[in-house]
Batch of 2 targets.
Target 1
Amino acid sequence: MNGTMLRDMAVKARENAYAPYSGFKVGAALLGSSGKVYTGCNIENSSYGLTICAERVAVVKAVSEGEREFTALALAGSGAGFIYPCGACLQVLAEFAPRLKIEIVEASGDYKITSVKELLPRAFVLKQREEADGN
Ligand SMILES: [Zn+2]
C-alpha cells in the first residue's frame, strides 16, 4: 500500500459521503499496521450535532474490527484547497496513533503531508496512560 493508493481510496470513499445539508463531501482512508485499509466518509444528520466526520468513521470501523495501530491516513475533501481534520477527529486519531502521518489530497490530485503530532501537538491524555508524557 503506497501513498498514491491510499489517497485514491480516500477519493473513492468520498463518493459515499452523505452530505445533503452542507454539500461538502469528505473521504478518508486509514491504513492499519496490519496492512488493511479502513475507509470512511462524512455522514451528516438533520440534527447537525450528530454529524460524524470521515476520519472518525474510518477509526471506528477499524477499532471495531480489532485494529489498534495505524500508520497513515489519507483525506480527500470537496473542491479546491486542502482540508484538515477537525479538532475532534485529531483527538480521536491521537488516541491510537499520536504520530500518524496524514496525506491530504485536493481536487487537482495535489497533496500535502502532515501529521497528527503537527496538527495537534498537545493532545489530551489521561495521566494513567503510559503515553501521558505527550510524546
Ligand atoms: Zn472531524
Note: The two ends are 27 Å apart (CA to CA).
Target 2
Amino acid sequence: MMIVNRITQSRVWTSIFRHNLDDKPRNKGLAVTSNVFLHIHPVTTRASAMKVRFTFCMGGLTFLMFIVEVVTGILLMFYYRPVPEYAYTDMKLIEHTVHYGMFLRNMHRWAAHAMVILVMLHMLRVFLTGSYKPPREFNWVVGVLLLTLTLLLSFTGYLLPWDQIAFWAITVGSKMAAATPFLGSEGPFHELLKINEYNDMQYLLLGDNRVWGNALLRFYVLHCVLLPVMCTVFIAIHFWRIRKDGGISRPL
Ligand code: HEM
C-alpha cells in the first residue's frame, strides 16, 4: 500500500492523472464536465487563450497538415505498389495519367514539408512562452514523441518514390544505423555483443544489408500504417492533456 501511495502521489503520476474523481462530492459533476468524451468543449475558456498572437495556431496548423497527409496519403495508396519493379513507374503514372495526380502528389509532399517546419515552430513557441513548465511537463514529453514520429514519417516517406535521391538518401541514412556503437556491424564495440551484418540495426531497418525490396516494403508499412496510427494516438493524448492541464497556458 505504501508503495502504491508513493507512486500515485509522485510528481510524474500527478502530472499525468490530475485528480481522484471519488474524493469530493463536487467531483461527481466534474466526472462529466471534465471528461473529454462526455463533454468535448471545456466548460470555460479564458479570453487570453483565444489570442491568435499567443500561439499563432502552430499546433493547430501542424494538426491540419497531418489531416491533409492522411487524406492525400490514402488516395495515393490506391495507385502505388511498394515493390522495386513498380514503385517508380507508379509514381510517374500518378503524376501523368491519374486525374489531378500531380496535384495530389505535390499536396502530399508540400504538406509533409510544412508539417516538419510547423511542428518545429510550434515547439519553439511552446518553449519561448515557457509552456513546458508544470503543470504541462507531461504534454511536453508527449510533444517530443510527436516530433520524433513526424521526423520518422518524413524519413520513411522519402524512400517511397524509389528514385535516385530516395535510394541514396536511405542508403546513407541506414549506413548510420550500421555505424551505431554496440548495435551496428560497423560501429565500435559491436564484437562485444556478437553483432554482425545479419543481426545489426541496419538489418532490422532494411530487412537486408542493402536498400532493396525488403527495405521498400518495411518503409511502406511503417509510413502508411504503424507511424500514422502511433501519431493519431499521441495527438489524441496531446489534446486530452491540454484539457486536463486547464487549457493552453496564458500569456504573461
Ligand atoms: C504532430 C505534432 C503536434 C501537434 C499536432 C500538436 C498540436 C498542439 C495543439 C493544437 C496545441 C494547442 C495550442 C497551439 O495550437 O499551439 C498544442 C499545445 C502544446 N503542445 Fe503541441 N503539437 C505537436 C507537437 C508538439 C511538440 C513537438 C511539442 C514540444 C516538444 C509540443 C508541446 C506542446 C505543449 C507543452 C502544449 C501546451 C502549450 C500551452 O499550454 O501553451 N507539441 N499542441
Note: Residues 120 and 224 are 22 Å apart (CA to CA).
